[in-house]
Amino acid sequence: MTQLDAGPSAGTLLRMATAGSVDDGKSTLVGRLLHDSKSILADQLDAVERVSREKGLGIVDLALLTDGLRAEREQGITIDVAYRYFATAKRTFILADCPGHVQYTRNTVTGSSTADVLVLLVDVRKGVLEQTRRHLAVAALLRVPYIVFAVNKIDLVDFDQATYERVAADFQVVATELGVEHVLSVPVSALLGDNIVDRSEHTPWYTGPSLLELLEDLPPLGDPAGEAFRFPVQLTIRPQAAARDPRHVEYRGYAGQIASGVVRVGDRVRVLPLGRQTTVVGIDTADGELDEAFAPQSVTLRLADEVDITRGELIADADSDLHATQDVEGLVCWLSDRALRPGSKVLFKHTTRTVQGIVRELHGRLDLDTMTPVPADALTLNDIGRVRIRLAAPVVAEDYTTSRRTGAFLLIDPQMGSTLAAGMVRPIPVDPDELEAETLNWSI
Prior knowledge:
Elongation Factor Tu (Ef-tu), domain 3; single chain; globular
């Protein structure tokens, strides 16, 4: 498994998600993590202890800390994504506990879409299962920066080193097939707390950090200053008073959230899809003006020239080579009970822009057993496939491997308004050598 050098993480925010097959112990692990790090209130613990007694359990069921839906508590499973917030002396965490049942894979996509690290659990007695492969494929598709492989229930095999190493090696094979680079492994017992917050005396053969220590010391993600500037416009601001009364100073600003990079007063920028260049003359916020702003701040930009800019257009650095297109190639995680077939009409939502589209081609789906693409006439619930979509209006979409924000999109049912798929823009390479590599590593 990959070894990462610890970086300065104090005070930084880490978004994490948990995933794995059903009954692998995800909710118990999260509950143990919250309990042992002293991140739950006394009345919360009292409530969990009371419910555990009412269920006739001999121990406190820490999974109840995250399984908040009535159906979850009655069935003993996770259905919805449960978000929890906690902090240690070294780091602040936003944690998404995702469900394990295959029919709720769509929820796992939601929980992992903004994660910096995915903690993927497996029962050491069962090893790597199809759902483990599916969740790892989702993480690879979504470009989650770090994967932590938690081999759970190590106590049920008497903390056997050989069993742990065999399962960890199997997982590494799958990760390599998917092109996942940063994978770290740790043996844990969520029920008993071994290697969750403190290192366990029962695994003297394991010399690595506990799960919490590992998460606290993950190197921070890239500096926004090193990324290209991207600003999807959400709203054009022009106070009505300025139009009615000439005594008011004319004001025109473009509001939104910076998707990536840094912008400074005086920077040359390009407005897309128009392609016109201009200069940033002001950066406004609710608290006053700024000289510079960076992702993910929400700001209003003022430009030197009057440019006709509407919601959904993109302001980027002047030297960017972006261009608009009406044909989008990409990978999709299909989240609907309704099947996707060529000819299906959809709404394509990309950043702040939503346009009509039609699925022109379905290139196939990912076989999770062989990790290779196979022909398919349709995509059904939880399938991962490659599609080409023709849009009614152009969008400025980047390769998802370049930008998670401007390379992501949603497909929406035009009649019902429900989300059909989460997608990642992935153009088909033109170079034959790149095309061969894309075929071998198609899922990411």
